[in-house]
Amino acid sequence: MSDDDRRVVFAVIKFLRDQLRTKTEASEDLVDAMNCLQRAYGLTMNDIELDIPVSLQELVLFALNKSQNRFEEAVKFNKIGDDYMQNRKYPEAYSCYTKAIILNKNNPVYYNNRAAVSQLLNNAESAVMDCKRSLIIDPKYCDAYVRLGKIYSDLDQYEQAAENYERATELEPQNDLYKENFQQALGEAQKRGMMEFDMTEVDLNDLALQLLANPSFKDVAKGFLEKTKDNSDVWQQIKDYCIGRKKVLLEACVCGKQ
Fold it and tell me: TPR repeats at which positions (predicted)?
């Protein structure tokens, strides 16, 4: 443990000792707390070299003021980042937003701003991570949901885009643009869903096992392979049939016939 840490603990012990003068009803608890700290850190009230000329309250106020200064510096870096963004100096903006985050990790705006830069720099993964960090801090921060919706739309991941746009519309139901974005993403997600075959309900392993266990199927398959192994025309016909059948199924799905 450093001497600075020991000085802080000594200041706490001094504070507890001073409290004994006014908190007589809790004197036993205060003494226990002092003894625990002294044993844990190997200190005694005779370690006067650790004494500092300020009280614990003054130390706390100093720390609070220092934190306030950090927050003010974070605001400045965020503002500089905004200026860089307006001038399309994206790497510089990213650096400033990062500095703001280092100074104040609990402001969702800084993460969302950095996500905007990452998006412009084609770093979707970093942008998504910063948006999610922003939402951990403030789950109702609407701008982060909107940005996630845009990122996922650019990645053609319309289902995720629709989910985030929908959350934005729930938070700001009066915003028509969010509603429009949600409907567009939802429409794209549904359109793409129609073009994909859902095989989740087909147990292919079970189907294969049933066929292989059928003697008639095995005999037919064996005979077919022996007769057609050198006949390229037969295999071309099979290939053409599969391609044609797939086309029919796709057209049927798009037209809503299946």
Answer: 74-107, 142-175
Q: For 115-129, write each residue's pLDDT tens digit.
A: 999 999 999 999 999
Residue in the block written with tokens 């003068």: 21
Total of domains in the chain = 3
* Contact indicator for 149, 135 with CB cutoff of 8 Å: no
Residues 6+ apart with CB under 8 A from 106: 137
CA distances (Å), 169 to each of 116, 166, 174, in order?
A: 20, 5, 8
H or E stretch at 138: none
Residue 237 has pLDDT above 90, yes or no: no
Of the CA atoms within 13 Å of residue 200, those in its CB half-sphere come to 2
* Nearest by Cα to 141 from 162, 111, 186: 111
Domain of 82, in residue numbers = 68-196
Closest CA to 110 of 88, 77, 147: 77
* Residue 5, CB-side half-sphere exposure with 13 Å CA sphere: 6
What is the per-residue pLDDT across 183-192, written as a single tens digit (0 to 9) for each? Answer: 999 999 888 7
What's the pLDDT at 168?
A: 95
Distances in Å between the Cα of 180 and the Cα atoms of 56, 66, 165, 183, 186 are: 56, 45, 9, 5, 10
How far CA 38 is from CA of 20, 47, 53, 68, 257, in Å, comes to: 16, 11, 20, 32, 81
Q: CATH number, domain at 23?
A: 1.20.5.420
| pLDDT tens for each residue of 144-172 | 999 999 999 999 999 999 999 999 999 99
Residue 61 lies in a domain: no
Residue type, position 142, single letter: C
pLDDT digit string, tens, across residues 73-113:
999 999 999 999 999 999 999 999 999 998 899 999 999 99
